[in-house]
Design goal:
- Keywords: NADP, One-carbon metabolism, Oxidoreductase.
- Pathway: Cofactor biosynthesis; tetrahydrofolate biosynthesis; 5,6,7,8-tetrahydrofolate from 7,8-dihydrofolate: step 1/1.
- It catalyses: (6S)-5,6,7,8-tetrahydrofolate + NADP(+) = 7,8-dihydrofolate + NADPH + H(+).
- There is one protein chain.
- By secondary structure, the chain is of the alpha/beta class.
- The protein has a single domain, classed as Dihydrofolate Reductase, subunit A, CATH 3.40.430.
- Helix content is about 20%, strand content about 35%.
- The chain has 4 helices and 10 strands, in the order ββαβαββαβαββββ.
- The chain has helices at about 25-35, 45-50, 80-85, 100-105; strands spanning about 1-10, 15, 40-45, 60, 75, 90-95, 110-115, 125, 135-140, 150-160.
- Strand 3, helix 2 (about 45-50) and strand 4 (about 60) form a beta-alpha-beta unit.
């Protein structure tokens, strides 16, 4: 299965200046638990936003730069090639950024969204989920607290 995973604001904002514009520790834990021991597909800028490669995951990076070759990563030049290098019998996760989400949407089977209940000034956005193509099958509300400044909801969509 190809699974898209993202934290998205009410206005579909993903981030600004190659960084998130909110901090939700529980969402980071969820991301880690879902993606650990799987292939994660991302664009070069998303990869470069990490302080180091994420442990216990195979990084597949999409870039147009021919000489880009970070150690321990698989580098390809298209979403089709990124999907092709992932094991067919395992879940693989699309983790961003905005351009990669748009390219990967036609290949995606499941979308795991953390909907952050706020709007943000951003320069990167998640594609609109077309309700004619996607069915919301799970929703779990979470409320702001001393570690989370915003209410948020985990949502799982499957392709109709």
């Amino acid at each position: 299965m190809i699974i898209m995973i993202a934290a998205v604001a009410e206005n579909n904002a993903l981030g600004k200046n190659n960084d998130l514009v909110w901090h939700l520790p529980n969402d980071f834990k969820r991301f880690k638990s879902l993606t650990t021991n799987h292939h994660i597909i991302m664009g070069r800028k998303t990869f470069e936003s990490f302080p180091k490669p994420l442990p216990n995951r195979t990084h597949v990076i999409i870039t147009r730069q021919n000489d880009y070759n970070p150690e321990g990563c698989i580098v390809v030049d298209s979403i089709e090639k990124a999907i092709a290098v992932c094991p067919e019998n395992e879940d693989s996760y699309i983790i961003g950024g905005g351009e990669i989400y748009n390219l990967a949407l036609p290949f995606t089977d499941i979308i795991e969204i953390t909907k952050v209940h706020h709007t943000f000034d951003a320069d990167t956005f998640f594609p609109k989920i077309n309700e004619n193509e996607w069915l919301l099958v799970e929703s779990e509300e979470n409320f702001k607290d001393d570690k989370h400044l915003y209410d948020y909801t985990y949502e799982t969509y499957i392709r109709k």
